[in-house]
Amino acid sequence: MTTNNKYSRNQIDKLGNALIYLIENMGSLPKTSLLKLVYILDEHSVKKRGFPMFNLQYEIWKYGPVCQDLYIEFNDGASLLKDYIKSEVIENSIHISPINSFNDDEFSDSDIAILDSIVATFSGKNTNYLVDFTHQKNSLWYTTATRNGVLEALLNEEINATDYKIDFSELVAHDQNKLDFYNEHIEFLNFTASLNQR
Hints:
The protein is mainly alpha-helical. The protein has one domain (4-196). It has helices at 9-26, 31-49, 68-76, 109-122, 127-134, 140-147, 151-155, 176-196; strands spanning 29-30, 59-61, 85-90, 93-98, 161-165. The protein has a three-stranded antiparallel sheet with strand order 1-4-3. Helix 2 (31-49) packs parallel to helix 5.
């Protein structure tokens, strides 16, 4: 979220309002929990519909998957998301709270259903639970870390972060129609993002 030419106005608005929705329905959330929930929303959306909700890039970190831009946005104080959220230190950890009310302009009924499902499933779950959930065997985090030879180093805290990326297409690789749809959708999003950079 650090460079404005990387994300469209609609993408920023959708992400900002999704963060507001999660916090309004789940209460103030620590940074790591919110990073996990954003990832889970994208993953769940790909599994259910064949395309991500936000189209963010996630890297394999110890407490990942993490969107580095969002991590920086939470740590350094919101810049692109300044109209939606603020970061504050509560009991030695960064918590994110909304500064506006939820606006559903960028959301389809399907998006809201996914948000509601994630809220219902993960309300009351702590950060450790969310990290364990995203690190299960056969998860994208686990398989990507294993394939790139960094799993043990991450688990043993020898390293905290890598630049290995999550590839959501692996979630739909078994279904050619969904895979084709996923690839077409990502191509379209990348094309519209490139227009935004001109």
